[in-house]
Amino acid sequence: MKFDTLPETCLVDETIVIRVLDLQPGARVSLKLWSRLDQITLLSTANFTADSNGVVDLGSHAPDSGSYDGVDAMGLFWSRAPVDGEIAKGFESVSRDPLTATLVAEAKDGGTSIAHSIRRVYLGPGVVSREVRENGLVGKMFEPAQPGPHRAVLVVGGSNGGLAWSQEMAALLASHGYAALALAYFAAEGLPPTLDRIPLEYFETALAWLSAQTSVAADCIGVVGVSRGGELALLLGATYPKIRAVVAYVPSGILWPAYPESGYGAWTLNGHEIPYAQTLSYEQWDQALAAGEARGDSFDWYFIPLRDASYADRAAIRVEKINGPVLMITGIDDKLWPSTELTAFAVERFKRQSFRHRVEHLAYAGAGHSIAWPNGPTTMLKSRHPVSGEEMDMGGTPEGTARARQDSWPKMLAFLGSALADA
């Protein structure tokens, strides 16, 4: 048996065709995909029966059993999950590069096995990157190989801080033809340690810096953010008309306090805290439960204060001021915060204010908080927050989140392309 032609290197968001050829019809084959994440070994498996032509094709055949169900060309990639002990020892002979996944096919009759390693990267051919440490900014700039000027994107991460999410998103966007600035705004050298009273003027400086780059079309700049960075993306769009398109992953149309909570707001403008809403305190939550005013397994600690329309309006982002189209992407089963419901505040405000630009809200059943580019592992639903140390539950199911990523990613790229083309 052999693999059909497979790349040695490709972008992480690229769908690849995995086919095993030259099998006996009806032969049983086990496919495994190994990779490494930090000190964790990840593994997915899928068992197949060859068709009448002696072929196993992941793009058209469902596995008999394994880590995922149904036909899914990239099922082995998103269904990778941590393994240890004796199982992990099988990884010792393959690459420990975190970007490299090793595909192994084993004949179930005890015959041969074959392997192929694929390095899945964020930087496409010719994309260049450079550190940005000018005008007080902390970021990383990514530019396509082709000469500009290019449509550009400011990319901001969430409450994890630093550049962990934003530099990967920015690299992928540059690989799709955008000039992209990944910008840290806390939890990086020279910046505040936490998400606490971050001045919007910092982002205004970043927009000015981005506009001044010779590779950038200054009138075609969008913003992409996730989680608290999704909240920020909506806020920046509502504050700075230079931004002509907004993409907000699992965001909120309501502004929230500093994180971890400090008694202050997350954002300031002109030296003043921007009004924000607060969740119920632990004491208030216990009282609400005792009085039957809150449901135990719910996000009512967010929603009870927002039942006061004037209070909610005071903390709402003035999204109607955004100077271009808006795309918001959420998981209906988000357990980190109720992003779908909090995004609904923005959707309703757009309608109420007769917003003149296009608005889309993609809400995915079965998906949790970690929606982004496709094909990464979606099985690790719980983790510890790197800033606060709190236990986090991303929510959703691995398959539901994977499907949301697969569906939303090409739609996001198409939206960004059309939105900035019209700018």
Automatic annotation (TrEMBL):
One of its GO terms (biological process) is acyl-CoA metabolic process. Gene3D superfamilies: Acyl-CoA thioester hydrolase/BAAT N-terminal domain (2.60.40.2240), alpha/beta hydrolase (3.40.50.1820). The active site is at S227 (charge relay system), D334 (charge relay system), H369 (charge relay system). Signal peptide: none annotated. Residues 13-134 form the Acyl-CoA thioester hydrolase/bile acid-CoA amino acid N-acetyltransferase domain. The keyword Ion transport does not apply. It comes from the Bacteria. Keywords: Hydrolase. Residues 198-421 form the BAAT/Acyl-CoA thioester hydrolase C-terminal domain. One of its GO terms (molecular function) is fatty acyl-CoA hydrolase activity. The keyword Metal-binding does not apply. InterPro entries: AB_hydrolase_fold, Acyl-CoA_thioEstase_long-chain, BAAT_C, Thio_Ohase/aa_AcTrfase, Thio_Ohase/BAAT_N. Belongs to the C/M/P thioester hydrolase family. This is Palmitoyl-CoA hydrolase.
